[in-house]
Design a protein that fits this description.
By secondary structure, the chain is of the alpha/beta class. It contains ten helices and nine strands. The protein has one domain: 3-Layer(aba) Sandwich (Rossmann fold). The chain starts with a strand and ends with a strand.
Length: 258
């Protein structure tokens, strides 16, 4: 039986990853700050409640994971966002974004490897962002954490593969049809036009090789544009995201999880 750890698995993409893992016979452990969401997970899923921005709760979660059996797949999915002009984003919100999106997955990765809790020939998957290729004006701190996570993963990739047999991957999805994406979208009424998280979850499950995973034709096309014509991609992102966000509100939105 494939043992799977998913952070941020109570809703959105994480919940879709839970469903995909169960559908494929996996034994799933979910780590999430959403106590209510954890109670609604399917039967048989092991739940660990922890706010990854809280150092004490993170240490407690690490202790519980260190006592578990090794995981075959670890999906570092937990993430939060805050949108609006960068200069209006309070330092405290930036600190929480960095803690949840970057510091916590780095700490969890370190602890899992030190405790030998990722199986040889296992996979360590980080959920990054399409912003790695095209930028994300209006969510600069979020984009920075996701790029930091991508570089962290790239730096681990060869060492972990050669020394421990662990495959390190990054998935870079575009906008998904989730509550998280809707809250931070400049056009929240476009639900149904974005990629369903189950498609991304299935892509993650199937992608046993390769480092950067970009699900869907639209996201793949955007990533190519960002690499070949970064200036044009930046201008497009500013027009379709930043300017519309400014029109929606002059204040940053509340933090929310993926």
């Amino acid at each position: 039986m494939t043992r799977v750890l998913i952070t941020g698995g109570a809703k959105g993409l994480g919940r879709a990853c839970v469903r995909t893992a169960l559908k494929n016979g996996g034994h799933v452990t979910v780590l999430d700050a959403d106590a209510s969401g954890l109670t609604q997970l399917p039967d048989g899923v092991s739940a660990i409640h922890a706010d990854l921005a809280d150092a004490a709760e993170l240490r407690s979660a690490i202790n519980r994971l260190s006592a578990s059996e090794p995981f075959d797949i670890v999906i570092m999915n937990a993430g939060i966002n805050a949108t609006g002009p960068f200069e209006t984003l309070p330092v405290e919100r930036q600190a929480k974004l960095i803690a949840v999106n970057l510091t916590a997955p780095m700490a969890l990765t370190t602890a899992l490897i030190q405790a030998d809790k990722i199986a040889r020939d296992g996979r360590l998957v980080f959920v990054g962002s399409l912003s790695h290729f095209v930028s994300y004006p209006g969510a600069s701190t979020y984009a920075g954490t996701k790029d930091g996570l991508t570089v962290f993963a790239r730096s681990l990739r060869r060492h972990l593969r050669r020394s421990l047999g662990i495959r390190v991957q990054v998935v870079a999805p575009g906008p998904m049809d989730t509550d998280h994406a809707t809250e931070h979208s400049p056009t929240p009424d476009d639900r149904g036009t974005r990629m369903h998280p189950s498609v991304v979850a299935d892509t993650i499950w199937r992608s046993w090789s390769g480092f950067l995973i970009v699900p869907g034709m639209a996201a793949s096309g955007a990533s190519i544009l960002g690499r070949l014509l970064p200036g044009m991609a930046g201008r497009i992102m500013r027009r379709v995201i930043f300017e519309k966000l400014q029109a929606r509100t002059s204040e940053p939105s509340n933090l929310s999880s993926r």
